[in-house]
């Protein structure tokens, strides 16, 4: 599928994704994957800081048929939940790293592993602490106001993808969608997610998806769904050789088409991490 949303190499797309309005279109039928992908981006709206931004988030979700969001927050960790007015799906999306939030950076740096007794295995200590801080709130919502939900969908981008992955082992969603996710835990942790429906999306050269290094006892959860640099199309499980060749061409194109422009991110490895460059692969 060729997207009508252009690739965005700007620093604004990467560092302030909340400035861009929703891609949901009122009256259009959106798929559950589209719900999850755009919700992962909408978490960056500062709904926890401003009534205006909360109203903006609610309006964006309403365009896709969802009711008003319930916010979950603790320290630097933020997520929201909402119910679809049509099929009764419950959607919970987790916010990723905000560059201006020092507590997020501290969470990312706590890369030593700790036991994840919730399902087994060992996981990134910073991610574990952040996930545990909001899981009780989400559980209370799912067991209370959202107790009649028909199915649960979890989503997140970057740090938010890591938190959604951890939450999936506790909440057992029908669908987990992660965008630009770092590795979260070891192979024993990943094995606990083997029976879950996981859509793990990697955009081209996105450096965050390559961290922490696999040789540091970390593994990815879910097969790769790869957004090609050359045409922005998402393909299922391409071979490592296909990915390497696409990234090589993608870097070369980026250097000639984007890197030199004013306001652009210097490296494709960072620009590909921008949430809108994930979203564009799922919306025509």
Would you kindly provide a written description of the structure presented here, covering whatever features stand out?
The radius of gyration is 18 Å and the shape is globular. Mean pLDDT is 92; it is low at 101-107. It has 10 helices and 10 strands. 36% of the residues lie in helices and 17% in strands. It starts with 10 loop residues before the first helix and ends in a 5-residue tail after the last helix. With 284 residues, the protein is of the alpha/beta class. α5 (125-143) crosses α6. It has helices at residues 11-15, 32-42, 51-63, 102-109, 125-143, 159-171, 187-191, 240-257, 268-271, 275-279; strands spanning 70-74, 77-83, 89-94, 113-115, 122-124, 151-157, 175-179, 198-203, 224-227, 234-236. The chain has one domain (11-279): Rossmann fold, CATH 3.40.50. Strands 1-2-3-6-7-8-9-10 form an 8-stranded mixed sheet, sandwiched between helices. β2 (77-83) and β3 form a beta hairpin.
């Amino acid at each position: 599928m060729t997207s009508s949303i252009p690739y965005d190499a700007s620093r604004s797309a990467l560092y302030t994704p909340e400035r861009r309005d929703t891609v949901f279109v009122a009256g259009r039928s959106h798929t559950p994957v589209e719900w999850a992908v755009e919700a992962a981006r909408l978490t960056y709206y500062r709904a926890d800081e401003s009534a205006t931004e909360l109203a903006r988030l609610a309006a964006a979700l309403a365009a896709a048929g969802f009711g008003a969001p319930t916010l979950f927050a603790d320290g630097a960790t933020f997520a929201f939940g909402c119910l679809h007015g049509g099929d009764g799906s419950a959607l919970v999306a987790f916010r990723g790293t905000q560059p201006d939030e020092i507590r997020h950076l501290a969470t990312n740096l706590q890369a030593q592993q700790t036991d994840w007794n919730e399902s087994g295995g060992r996981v990134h200590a910073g991610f574990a602490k952040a996930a545990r801080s909001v899981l009780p709130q989400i559980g209370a919502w799912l067991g209370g106001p959202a107790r009649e939900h028909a199915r649960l969908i979890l989503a997140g981008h970057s740090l938010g993808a890591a938190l959604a992955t951890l939450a999936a082992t506790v909440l057992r969603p029908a669908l987990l969608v992660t965008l630009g996710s770092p590795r979260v835990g070891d192979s024993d942790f990943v094995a606990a997610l083997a029976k879950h429906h996981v859509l793990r999306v990697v955009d081209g050269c996105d450096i965050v998806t390559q961290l922490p290094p696999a040789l540091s006892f970390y593994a990815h959860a879910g097969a790769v769904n790869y957004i090609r640099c050359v045409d922005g199309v998402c393909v299922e499980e391409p071979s490592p050789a296909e990915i390497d060749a696409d990234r090589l061409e993608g870097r070369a194109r980026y250097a000639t088409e984007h890197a030199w422009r004013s306001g652009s991110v210097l490296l494709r490895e960072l620009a590909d991490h921008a949430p809108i460059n994930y979203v564009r692969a799922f919306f025509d």
